[in-house]
Amino acid sequence: MRGKLDLDRAQVRRARQLARRAGKPVVDLARGHTTVAVERAVLRLAGITGADPDGIPWVNRLVDAVAADVGLGHGVSVPVFHALAISGAHDLTMLAQKAAAGSVRFSLPSGTAATAARRAARRAVAAGIKRIDRRRAERERLVKRYGDPRQRPWIYLIVATGDIYEDIPQAQAAARAGADVIAVIRSTGQSLLDYVPEGPTREGFAGTYATQENFRLMRAALDESSKELGRYVRLTNYASGLCMPEIATLAGLERLDMMLNDSMYGILFRDINPIRTFVDQRFSRQIHARAGIIINTGEDNYLTTADAVEAAHTVTVSQLLNEYFAHEAGLADWQLGLGHAFEIDPDLPESFRLELAHALLARELFPDAPLKWMPPTRHMTGDVFRGNLLDGFFNLVGTLTGQGILLVGMMTEAVVTPWLSDRDIALQNVRYVLGACGGLHEDFVPAPGGFIQRRAHHVLGESIELLERIVDDGLLNAIADGTFGIMKRPADGGKGLSGVARHEDDYYNPATELLEAA
Amino acid sequence: MRGKLDLDRAQVRRARQLARRAGKPVVDLARGHTTVAVERAVLRLAGITGADPDGIPWVNRLVDAVAADVGLGHGVSVPVFHALAISGAHDLTMLAQKAAAGSVRFSLPSGTAATAARRAARRAVAAGIKRIDRRRAERERLVKRYGDPRQRPWIYLIVATGDIYEDIPQAQAAARAGADVIAVIRSTGQSLLDYVPEGPTREGFAGTYATQENFRLMRAALDESSKELGRYVRLTNYASGLCMPEIATLAGLERLDMMLNDSMYGILFRDINPIRTFVDQRFSRQIHARAGIIINTGEDNYLTTADAVEAAHTVTVSQLLNEYFAHEAGLADWQLGLGHAFEIDPDLPESFRLELAHALLARELFPDAPLKWMPPTRHMTGDVFRGNLLDGFFNLVGTLTGQGILLVGMMTEAVVTPWLSDRDIALQNVRYVLGACGGLHEDFVPAPGGFIQRRAHHVLGESIELLERIVDDGLLNAIADGTFGIMKRPADGGKGLSGVARHEDDYYNPATELLEAA
Amino acid sequence: MSTIVRPYGDTTGDGMVQLSFTLPVPADKRAEGAALQLAGKMGLDPAMVVHSRAMGDGYTFFVVYGRVQHLVDLGKVHVVERDFPLLGAREINTLVKRRLRRKLVVVGACIGTDAHTVGIDAILNVKGIAGEKGLEYYRELRVVNLGAQVSVPDLVERARAEKADAVLVSQVVTQRDAHLHNTREMSAAFREALPAARRPLLVVGGPRFDERDAAGLGVDRIFGRGTTPREVASYLVHAVLPARAVAA
Amino acid sequence: MSTIVRPYGDTTGDGMVQLSFTLPVPADKRAEGAALQLAGKMGLDPAMVVHSRAMGDGYTFFVVYGRVQHLVDLGKVHVVERDFPLLGAREINTLVKRRLRRKLVVVGACIGTDAHTVGIDAILNVKGIAGEKGLEYYRELRVVNLGAQVSVPDLVERARAEKADAVLVSQVVTQRDAHLHNTREMSAAFREALPAARRPLLVVGGPRFDERDAAGLGVDRIFGRGTTPREVASYLVHAVLPARAVAA
Ligand code: B12
Ligand code: B12
Ligand SMILES: Cc1ncc(COP(=O)(O)O)c(C=O)c1O
Ligand SMILES: Cc1ncc(COP(=O)(O)O)c(C=O)c1O
Question: What pTM, to 2 d.p., does this model score?
Fold first, then answer.
């Protein structure tokens, strides 16, 4: 079937080819580097837990100690498991404590010692991956038992009190009120922390820290809700920032179901170094692929800094790149929650038809992906009455164009992080629109050659042009030039570059090995 | 062109024929009767003005005196103009004063005296009709000068403070904010008053009294606004209740542009006697036809007492009857603001598509009428956030189905008569929807044989069945049975029956004569 | 458990509320300051004007968010609790039959110029509301529904003629406190026309009444938003029977 | 003209306002009573609960309409009026050149963990906002935009290094009063690091600040919602030049 937009298949194919060509050099770069975060993720898979009295996780202390002694370029697995073997420490956590106390030093073994260390590392990491596999199987069981949401799009709601113990009842209330997916927003500062905080937390700003314990508490609470409601309620968090690979790992271990995980968000909106990001990205996506986690990409963010009409094609280009990177890392189409958003200035004539054109374009370019449709934010104001109206039309585009995941917009977008009542009002809005207009897509037939088709074709054309330029100049240069979200991020700038190392010849990473073998 | 609903033309023709057959006996009834209100309207055309110290208009005193002396069945024109000739009163107003003082008596002249009285009456009434004609020409001039609204539907806003001096600035503010039509709602009690209050008024409940002076003040204010805005702003009031014909006349004299004027509203919702209503109706519509006034019918009201899905066909039947009565009274299609409303329970699945089906049915049955599309009221609650959302979807139906006049819904529908800010919020809502979705009707193509078409065909079928029953039983019996709005109104019940009289053989009404001659 | 609570935005005790209003002043800094002054007087501290919009030349609309400093003392909440048992139709009929030994007569109307009959019809007509049948459905009640726009003298006259045990009045239009004026006029008329012993039970209802105002309005009971017929019927047997059953 | 006004619903002096909030109590009559109690404390009389809705087991959301009894005294409104002339780009450049005789140095940043740069960029970047160019466009201003998530020590250090005349700080996230804490921390750090005479002018901005709080937060000026670059530039020449032009 040709779809409602009558897209040219040859053009679509060409766009995908260009995205592959634009992304390939970056994948090669990622394959040749590691980062402190990747190495910490590996050790987390291998079983290290806990934090020092200052709250710095032992895994950080351990990786820092290894890096100080032998550098990062060989991977930490071999030196760590070698030290574990010879130090007499019971486990990695104890080893980290000793290292912190200065009573262990790290070195690169050779010969059988090296082989033994590799084998031990691989065994330990395999156990971690096994746990992830079990969590995935558990999810599949629970989904079978309780069932998936009855409708598409899935209803996705944000919780953001900063306090996990306030978040939990709010999340449960939201689930009861109809949410299919709960996202716990992170505290503003977390993405730039180069470690993952520990334990349950109550002091976030505009969001709650992502910690393994918070993940566990919230997943357990939502398991209760799933049981109560007879519908598996999904949990989302953010695999982004300087600890992206570790958080992905913790998500896999605690059976989170979706993760925000964009290939460029950290670069553009957190000023994290591009190389660091791409290396961390690839590893975290391999974990997500294994864990059966759906990723959510962040193209919506571009439209908060760039104009949603002018920059519509940058969203498409980024979706194509995110798709390529995701496939390369082993993710299947059903795991690609590619992002896009309802951010056109509502005062623009025909803005709603433009939104429809953009949303349909994404739908038809990625027919098998559970697209994530994001609500208006930029043009939301303190006029909450108008806000609820705009959110209604956003919901309408969602159902008319068959989006997969609907992030529910809040009338207080411009005012506060969502209140309990905001969510309730927003969910009523969604329910009304999905209920009243659920079948309307049958009657929505963009006029052949009309405004909507023309707009979609135009955006696809612009996307191809932009991809051609990126293929010529290189993606890193395009990012440096402000192509996405008007944010200029040179490849040698940004935070976290010091945590990147080029692979030495003997670089060894049992996790990558296992994940890529699958 | 076949329209979006693919209606069966033969069915549509049949529906119209049935409506004519159902309405005809009632028209015959109206042609054979007069009422106090019709006679007062005639005298108002003939120039009587003013009220006694208790506020009772002289025209009431005069008609009552005539009725007391010679009855109503001959019409008041001849006895009045005969008395005027022999009493030495300067004008009708003075005559009324004398009559009230008991110093004049009325009789039925014969021979040349009768001929002279008729001629005098006809001359006086003709002068009144001439004034109406001048007002119509004036409107046409002003519309030419300032222009019609740039968009369809026209935006229709209600003002209802109860105080004409608060109404005026509010109406002007509304016009500035985008209203094309201003309706001044009437005080709750007025429809049951058997006289028209005089002068400017400040003490209405939930509306402002309809008086000639209030009409004049508001029209003058809106003329100012029209000039300021470069767009002719229309004014609406209510030709309904016990004084319907007089108010229609005053509207013609003061250049109101639209009037609420339904053939059955007074019967059903004010418990006014059916015969009284149909007689008053016919006369008032003849005036409206002459004055170039657009009438607004009240089918929307049925859906506040009956269920909007179950009773959808009663709206269609009533529209067909209103159309027949209107044509019979001389109104042209462009003057038929037939009413219908967005009143389906929003919790009903596919409610929005049902609304679309009903609204399109009306559109395609009456392609040349400026349909009046009424907002949700019954299912509005104190949840004003949800209210604004529903109003947005109501607006969307309005633009998708090409409605002529959009009565703007208010988020506070269930709470208060509109506040200044409610109107502003509501107008922003309208502007957003019409601006963002103005061209969307091109892409709205009900699936052939799909939900919307099937629903429309079904309602048309039910309408034909109901019309057949009405033709068999008689319209008055149907009304007595609660066919419309579940209100049961027997032909011999209700208010105002005592003001109805059967025509005597010599009944004379110069106004009808002049209006029907045209 | 503490009986002191505060409004809840997203954290226990945060006290957050939303507020909107119009001030009759042109939109400028002074207007925003005026809005903050009002919010302050209402107890918002801090208060944020998150939206302001000029309406015409002389008016400005505001949306304000903020923390309200007042505490809500649940212990001091004054409500009209249902102080009678909620009965089924059968019980009600039996009670009337046994204790009144005749039908209980109910006269209903919308008074004044109010023509909103849907509410009183929901209480009186067989059809009822919210799945409950209306009072006409109760075999032992005799219901006389006078409909809309009934004048107070007509109502009193008819109540007397029908020997009404209870008069049920609906008032929906509230602009300029029409519902309060009409109710007061009605109760005064009954007081004037009939000695206390023969006066029917006076009940008013409508979506905007405050149920706590019965005494002030001179009526026996007020029913608000979302009332159901069974509540009313139960109240009637409770209020009419004990006192009068003896006399009857 | 009277300087006393009241909120306006649809009639002068009616005092009508709209209010919504959640109470952490189950939805029942007591909850409605609690809502009315709060509305009463806020000065609404009469108050009508026009909507209530249970959210989960323990919370109820209310919409309340009513007449607020407070008066707004326009004479006592406290606003931060613009107490400096609004200048054009050319005038500003000329003034700086003539009176400062060097470029005026502006250092800007989002501090703390706040990463919302759109607002400060709107003020600083050439592109500007609302049709006005940003400060970078002014030839005689030297703008150093440090971007997002700048720590306070880094900001102080950089301001010192650049010999900043003015430091412009943006704060958008307000949950738990983050913006107030960060601003206080920032102003304290500058006070500690530099003697009063060498301390740059401290300016903060963001959509949720109350412009009247400058003194309390230890800064020289606050700019709120909808600020434009020209206002800021005009303020800078006004506040930096007179005092310092002499010293320079
Ligand atoms: C339906 C309706 C109409 C219909 C009425 C049909 C009819 N036969 O009743 C029509 C279209 C005719 C109409 C006309 C007008 N209406 Co009207 N109408 C409404 C509407 C949409 C719904 C009311 C309703 O039926 N609610 C459903 C019933 C079941 O609820 P209820 O009345 O609250 O009753 C329940 C309880 O309150 C209680 N109850 C009520 N009465 C009693 C009595 C007793 C004894 C007891 C025990 C309990 C009880 O029990 C009921 C069941 O739970 C409301 C808006 C809204 N959404 O609320 C406006 C509304 C009530 N109307 C309004 C107005 C102003 C008018 C007009 C005056 C406008 C005009 N100037 O032309 C006219 C004239 C009417 C008049 N003279 O009174 C205003 C009133 C504003 C105010 N607060 O003062 C409203 C709020 C709309 C608005 N925002 O402007 N209206
Ligand atoms: C765009 C945006 C983003 C973008 C930011 C991109 C960027 N590079 O800036 C992205 C998508 C990255 C983002 C992320 C987040 N955001 Co955000 N975001 C917004 C949004 C939609 C618009 C803000 C904006 O750009 N406004 C336009 C500018 C021009 O206006 P302005 O900032 O008010 O600036 C004007 C004036 O205030 C003033 N001004 C501002 N600063 C200064 C400084 C000086 C010196 C002067 C003189 C004047 C001045 O002048 C400006 C021009 O007039 C708002 C919602 C909304 N509609 O307001 C949420 C919002 C600000 N974000 C919010 C949140 C919570 C976040 C997150 C923390 C969520 C999370 N936990 O993941 C993240 C993390 C960000 C972080 N660490 O700070 C909340 C803040 C809630 C609160 N009140 O505390 C909001 C209100 C949304 C919400 N309701 O939840 N966000
Ligand atoms: C793709 C993506 N990742 C991450 C985040 C969250 O930001 P942070 O990593 O700062 O928590 C967002 C915010 O919306 C996002 O869109
Ligand atoms: C057709 C029609 N006529 C009249 C009215 C107004 O009622 P009244 O005549 O009581 O002023 C309405 C109310 O909406 C109406 O729809």
Answer: 0.96
